[in-house]
Inverse folding.
């Protein structure tokens, strides 16, 4: 991965292709809102975010939760964490400086089954969703085993929220078969000014 800057815009590239840009993060914020809105009144909610990106999902999550919440961020690439502690930090108001945040360098799948759980919400913003982009290894998050791991890592009535570039009916069926009540929502990349449509998969653990 590579971080580059074009004027006032930051871009993260994966093998030369644009993975994310600082100019378009409305759907990442929507991911947090849809996943965590039921936790607004919870005193000590616990949330897992898979994929730090540029920090926008983390910031939106923190803004929704109480002062006693715990938010674990699993990021596979150490450089992404370094960028968020450096030049990317101001973009989302330095969310990594929040005392509620715990950063784990590693695979989010490992955190799901760790003593840090279970969680009240799990947010996955890894690659392009079920159609893995940066690493084929990430596809395991979305197959039957990945869905089962997410289900096991959630408290009863916990929510799994998955960001994706497009709809995936087979993934919806997989979530349903894995014990989730599922809905799929279309959101805009720029919530106030359009942009491409992205998809948020929401699964509530039954």
């Amino acid at each position: 991965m590579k971080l580059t800057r074009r004027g006032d815009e930051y871009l993260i590239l994966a093998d030369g292709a644009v993975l994310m840009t600082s100019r378009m993060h409305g759907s990442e914020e929507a991911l947090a809102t849809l996943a965590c809105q039921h936790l607004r009144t919870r005193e000590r909610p616990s949330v897992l975010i898979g994929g730090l990106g540029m920090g926008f999902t983390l910031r939106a999550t923190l803004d929704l939760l109480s002062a006693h919440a715990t938010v674990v961020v699993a990021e596979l690439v150490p450089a992404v964490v370094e960028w968020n502690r450096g030049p990317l930090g101001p973009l989302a108001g330095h969310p990594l400086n929040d005392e509620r945040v715990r950063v784990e360098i590693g695979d989010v799948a490992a955190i799901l089954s760790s003593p840090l759980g279970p969680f009240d919400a799990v947010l996955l913003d890894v690659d392009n969703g079920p159609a893995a982009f940066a690493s084929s290894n990430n596809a395991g998050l979305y197959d039957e085993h990945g869905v089962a791991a997410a289900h096991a890592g959630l408290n009863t009535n916990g929510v799994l929220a998955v960001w994706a570039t497009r709809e995936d009916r087979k993934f919806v069926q997989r979530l349903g078969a894995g014990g989730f009540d599922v809905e799929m929502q279309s959101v805009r990349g720029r919530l106030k000014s359009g942009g491409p449509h992205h998809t948020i998969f929401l699964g509530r653990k039954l």
